[in-house]
Design brief:
β23 (about 480-485) and β24 form a beta hairpin. This protein is of the alpha/beta class. The chain has three domains: about 5-235, 3-Layer(aba) Sandwich (Rossmann fold), CATH 3.40.50; about 295-355 and about 430-525, Rossmann fold (3-Layer(aba) Sandwich), CATH 3.40.50.300; about 365-430, no CATH class. The longest helix is centred in the N-terminal third of the chain and has 16 residues, at about 165-180. It is globular. It has 17 helices and 24 strands. Strands 6-7-8-3-9-10 form a six-stranded mixed beta sheet, with helices on both faces. Strands 20-21-22-17-23-24 form a six-stranded mixed beta sheet, sandwiched between helices.
Amino acid sequence: MTIIARNLTRRFGDLTVVDSLSLSVVEGELFGLVGSDGAGKTTTLRMLAGVLDPSAGELNVLGRTFPAGAGGTRSHIGYMSQRFGLYPDLTVAENIRFYADIFGVGAAEFGERNERLLAFSGLAPFTARQAGRLSGGMKQKLGLCCALIHKPRLLLLDEPTNGVDPLSRRDFWRILRDLHVEGVTVVVATAYLDEAGRCDRVGLLHDGRLIACGTPAELTNGGTTSLEELVISKIGGEILPPFIKGESGGISSPSRKANPPQSFRPETGVPFVKGGSIEPPAVSLDKLTKRFDSFTAVDAISLTVPRGQIFGFLGPNGAGKSTTIRMLCGILPPTSGTGTVAGFTIADQPERIKENIGYMSQRFSLYEDLTVEENIAFYAGVYRLTGDKRRERSEWVIAMAGLAERRRSLAGELSGGWRQRLALGCAILHEPPIIFLDEPTSGVDPLSRRNFWDLIRSLADAGVTVFVTTHYMDEAEYCDRLALIYRGELVAVGTPEELKQARMTPGGPMPTLEDVFIGLIEERDTE
C-alpha cells in the first residue's frame, strides 16, 4: 500500500477538520477526493504530504510512519497545493527550472519533460514572461508544470485544474493518465465531478469524515445515478433548481421563474421596449481593442448585450476575457475602439460606469482579516449607502449568502462557497443594473455552485444584466447567450443551442458545449 490511514484526525483548537479518517490507496492507483467546501480535503492532503502533523491516528506513506518518517519521504512526493508557490519576479522558464533543480531533475529528463509540459499548458510562447504578469489560469497551469517537472512515486494534487479551461483540463488529464500508466500513485482533490469519474476510486469527504468510497461505477450504481447527485444526496442538500435533461442528454437551462417585462431580439442587439420606452443595450462594443506594448490582448471586439440577459463569456486562459471585463468595468482604458456600459462610454466615463455596475473578480476581492459584517460595512461605505437603506441592504446580503450565524466570522475563515456568496453580495449591495462576474465559482463544490447560480437567475429575473465568465460548461448552459474569445478575437456568438447546432454533423448526435469549445479552438490553431 502507498497510503494507509487509520482514524486519522486533525484538530485546530476546538475545531475538528479531519475526523477519524480511515482509507488506503494502493500503489499505482489514481484516487479522487471530492466533497463540499470545508470538508477536509486540503487538510488531508497536507497530512499525506508530511507538511501537517496529525492530531491523532496512524498514517503510513510509502512504507514510512508519519510524521516521524516524513523527512526521508518528501523527495519522493510531489505536492501541489491550491496556492502553489510561484515566484512572481521569475519568468515562466525560470520557475520551472528552479523546481527542476530542487527535485534534482537531470538535463536529459528536464529537456523532454519541459517541452512536453510547455506544449500541454500552452505556455511555450510565454516562457520569457514573469509569472506575476500571467493571468490567474495561466499561473495555475505554470504551477502544474512545476509540480510535474519531476516524476515522484506519489503525486498529491489539491484541485489542480481550478480556473483552467476545458481544453487545458483535457490535456492535463492526458498527462496524468500517462503518469498513472507509468506506475505513479496519484491522489487528486477536485471540484470537477467529471474528473472524479476518471479516477480508479473516489472518496467522498464531508465534515472531515469519509462517508463513501469506491469505484465510480460502484458509487453510481453502474451509472444509474451521477456522481453529482451522489455528492448532493450524501451531504444533505436539495437540488435547487432541478436540472432539466435535454434531448441530447446534456443539461439545458432551467426555465425562468417569470418572463422579464421586455421584448428584444438577442441576436441583433436591437434596443428593446420596456415599459413603453426604448432603452439602449446594457453593453455595446465596437472594435474594442487593448494592447500592452506589442502584445494585443483584445483585438477589435464588437458585441451587444441586451438588458436583463445572462451573457456568458468563454475562452481559454489568456484569451482576453479578464482584460475585456476590466475595460468594461472602467478599470482599464482601451487602446482603441468604442463602447458603452449602462449608457456610459468606456473611454470617457469610467467613474460613472463604476457607480452603476457590480464587479466580482477572479481573486477573492474581500478583506480576509475583517469579519463578514465589517466587509459589508466597508462596501456599504464605498457605495455611499446610509441609514435605513444601508441596514436593509446589509441584512439582505447576510440572508442571501446564508451567513446569519457567521456574521462575526473572519472572511478568511470561510469556505470557498461562503466567501463567493459574500463577495457576490458585496458586489450587488448597491443594487446595480449590471454585474460582471469573472469566474465566480472557480473551485467551488457542486452544491454551492448550484445555489450560486440560483442567485444569478433570480437577479436576471429581476431585470439585472449578468455578464459572466466561466470554465464550467454546465454553467455556460444556463446563459441566454454566449461569446467565445480566443487570442483576443471573438470567434463565435449565439445561444447555447445555436452554437451546438452549428457544430452538429448531419445525422450525428448533438455535440456538447465542451465539444464546441474545443473544436472551435482547435480549428483556429490549424488555420
